[in-house]
UniProtKB/TrEMBL annotation:
SUPFAM superfamilies: Actin-like ATPase domain (SSF53067)
PANTHER family tied to this protein: CELL DIVISION PROTEIN FTSA-RELATED (PTHR32432), ETHANOLAMINE UTILIZATION PROTEIN EUTJ (PTHR32432:SF3)
Classification via InterPro entries: ATPase_NBD (IPR043129), FtsA/MreB (IPR050696), PilM (IPR005883)
Superkingdom in the source lineage: Bacteria
Name recorded for this polypeptide: Pilus assembly protein PilM
Amino acid sequence: MLRRCYLGLSINAARLQAVALRRQGKGVQLQGARAFDLKPGALVPSLREANLKDPGALTEALGEVLAPLAGREDRLAVSLPDQAGRVMLVEMETPFKTKQEGLEILRWQLKKSLPSELNDICLDFQVLSRSETGRRRVVASLMERAVLDQYQDVVERAGYHAVLVDFHAFNLYNYYRTRVDMGEDFVFIGIEGKVLNVEIFQGRSLVFHRVRDIAENAEQVFQELNRTLVGFQGGLQALRRSAAYLHTDWETREVLRDVLTSLFEKEPQLLSPHLERLLPAAADKSKLPEASIVDAVGAGERLLWGTA
């Protein structure tokens, strides 16, 4: 009996990364992975403007990267650039019984805080915590519909269906969430290419999220992190009591570790994805793409385990 294949696709300004996963007992097996570098300027993530400058070329690239992995499978989970949307942490005081009712309340609650130039919004949320009075704390994700439609259209034209769509930072964290016990209170930092994401968790619940474009320069990373963490409501001093974890695809991992050590006044834990452990025993580990595929795996696993 053939086991189902679960596809994860990461789309960013530099490249496409795709993986094919299968269940292996209580774990996951990486059946294959591919990457395709995009031409500079072919994809420019933006909250308001069209992201894809040549949709036809991207459709062809999607077919090239996915076809060797997919077989007959056409469902996939997509990881999009964080800059293509917005994430907000929201306190919802009005009780609701259904997801649709919650969306309507959230849309009304956010109406005054959203940019006026965003006309047609696609909105979703996940409940982080709730009180006895019915008050909920949620993480809300939103995109301009025209921007989301661009991505979904090229996926469909390539012959696939995006059944789960989320942002890079969350799929990156999702990969490590089940593999590393980070404790109750921690800071998760991701640095890939020219993008920095910071998530702060207290009591294992997300309390802060921020994404910034950066230069590939350790000094700027220090300055941006310092600005970000000083602005955190709990204060930088409180964060220094929390564990810090770093995922990066930079070759200068040790330099970044020293930067974070200076900032947190203790050494952070450098995360290693160990993707080779997901491969079949006889697989050629040298065939893994050099580009990071961690968020693609994180997206595919959400589809596999049904944690959308």
